[in-house]
Specification:
Chain A: Keywords: Signal. The complex is a heterodimer. By secondary structure, chain A is an alpha+beta fold. Chain A is built from 18 helices and 19 strands. The chains are: A alpha+beta, B mainly alpha.
Amino acid sequence: MRGATRVRWAVGVTVVALTAAACGGGDSGGGGSSGGSGGGIVRASWGDPQNPLEPANTTEVQGGKVLDMIFRGLKFYNPKTAKAENMVADSITTTDSQNFDIKLKSGWTFSNGEPVTSDSFIDAWNYDTQLKNAQLNASFFQYIDGYDKVHPDAPGAKASAATLSGLTKVSDTEFKVRLNQKFALFPDTLGYAAFDPLPKAFFTNRSAWLAKPIGNGPYQISSYTKGSKMELKKWDGYKGPDPAQNGGVELRVYTDNNTAYTDLQAGNIDLVDDIPVSQLRNVKADLGSRYINQPAGIIQTIAFPLYSPRWSSANAAKVRQGLSMAINRDQITKQIFEDTRTPASDWTSPVLGDAGGFKKGLCGDECTYNADKAKQLISQGGGLPGGHITITYNADTGSHKEWIDAVCNSINNALGNNKACVGAPVGTFADFRNRITNKQLNDPFRAGWQMDYPLIQDFLQPQYFTGASSNDSHYSSPTFDSLVNQANAAGSTSESVSKFQDAEKQLVKDMPAIPLWYQNGSAGYSSNLSNVALNPFSVPVYNEIKVS
Amino acid sequence: MGRYVIRRLLQMVPVFIGTTLLIFVMVYGLGDPVAAMFGDRTPDPATAAQIRHDLHLNDPLIQQYWIYMSGIFHGDFGKASTGQPVSELLKSAYPVTLKLTIVAFVIEAVIGVALGLFAGMRRGRFLDTGVLAITLLVVSIPTFVTGYVLQYLVGVKWGIVKPSVGDGAPFNQLIMPGLVLAGVSLAYVARLTRTSVAENSRADYLRTAVAKGLPRRRVITNHMLRNSLIPVVTFLGTDIGNLMAGALVTERIFNIHGVGYQVYQGIVHNNPPTVVGFVTVLVIVFLVANLLVDLLYAVLDPRIRYA
């Protein structure tokens, strides 16, 4: 019965959509992009990318969207399962988790006709690493042998080599990679945009390339007006298994996601991938089933400055566990975030899937609200240092104030002391980051981690391994480190994942950061579109979208 | 007259240097822009050091200001975070905002003066009270409220115009944003004109004009309006700068890629050259608009002379 109703409903929607499309075609005039000829165009909202559109220089999602459409790397993360699958690579083999033999599929080309060879990768990776090019993602190449020569870590040091000694070309379709340590999951990291190949056109004339990037993905850029819009059209010469299902994509820059949402309601745009907070109450009524809300590879935590004497004692771990249990995650995600966050019970993300290392409830009681137990643990640990704590956050973006206040409220209520916790705003994000990097904070601060590739390693190692690049807490545990090393040296992926989970269990004991919630990705689309989905990075899978 | 203009232009130099220095210090005081580039990730020290070196961030502030200013005189405003020269952004954004300002200015001047004139001439009557009540209402509602409400009603609910402005910002799409942007100033202009007209309608020279038997039209346009416009012109002149700067909110609501949009991007991406470059040009607009207003006084009132 229910099925039948749904079908009828769907038919109704389609009819309405068709009528709307028919009407829309006539008066859209200037837009001129909707409707039939050669597969429709998806008109989607966009933000101005923060950095130049180079693979290794793009750290945020807006630039990432474009790279996702115009590039394909050695591996590609399946949009549904997040599993890394071979794309340009034919095979990646190793016997010792340290030396990898990469064979490429033949026949791939860039959209300017240049073939994709092993040189396209080796030259790109060398360029990305070189210090003088100051690529923001250079550190992704740190496991490749010779990285420290091309990109010395100390500020002011000069590079003593221009190429990574760990990369050896065998033939046009084969090259070898030698790492400076064992890293079993290395092949699975190669789906990240920083590892994309670059055509010779990039090296001969970089500024022309940046004005209109050329890649090897399902789309090519037909026009790019910086700060305003980008038009991409389906590239017919694309060799991969996932060609575009639509004629192209038009990305329009919006400064205010409210305006983008209004344009969606008015039928001016087809796809909005960030629903404004103020519209969350209406979005289900406005869009119905055309609203997507699913976990993304982003976890938010409260991190502790373990270098500060306030938090470095052995007993302080109990206080941190107590604080974690004093936070009512269910209530906050419901009241403040309208269910656009999912309460966290481990330090990874549901997008990894069980096979990838996500384990619901790994943190156990320590991440479950229990006011009595919280009070007890904190007093066992010697009470809050100095009687009260602050939680530092940046006030300029992301409306963090609301939830920080809610977290503090929850802690205050649990402890029966309304002065136990207050929020401490910092004016700008840059200043906030500076204080963290310069170890100026003595009390917990908000932290967020957006995964680079869907691997448990990426959630744990950069943040909690001794001396790791984003270990803002300066957490150091020999047990954790040795388990991570074992995981990296493991023979198989599943063995590696289970070792990483063992390491994660150490975080429950030490609680260097309190997991709060997984951030969801959201999107809404017009009735012109079908088959819209978000990938594990909460970016719409543009090439699969069908336009009616 | 010529000497007066030259003197005023020379006075602009220290004002210009002072304001840009202040803006420069304030913007660069926001914090290290390099930290924000990496997002939540801790920057790797070598890359960060290289970027700081490239952007001269290690030099003392006054030297950075010197480098920046000497760049400006060669037409080099630095680079935005996307690697695009700020001068290119200026070229693409200012015409758009200028168009919006013109639309808003015309709406404000024409409707504002007309409303004020009618209200002033029918002082105490129904029309006058009506104008006073409506302008009070407009002044008390913030721009972003009128913006969002109009956008929703006209753009979505009734579907009369597009809720956002398309590429290149054609004039016909700028009418709604222009109305929103002009709203508050329009109310001020109407009230200023009304008071001024009401006052002058009892002036001696006006009675003389009527007594001479001049046609009513001529009395109103040549004698009453011309004399009543001096305070209004002062307001309108300074308002050009305000409209351009105030477009920040309106441009965001209607997705117009003008000055407000670029300044906002510059602040969000923590990119000082963008912010300083755009505000510097705004400073010049303010200075020039002020000079023009002062010169207009002499045209309107022959008693005012500049030597």
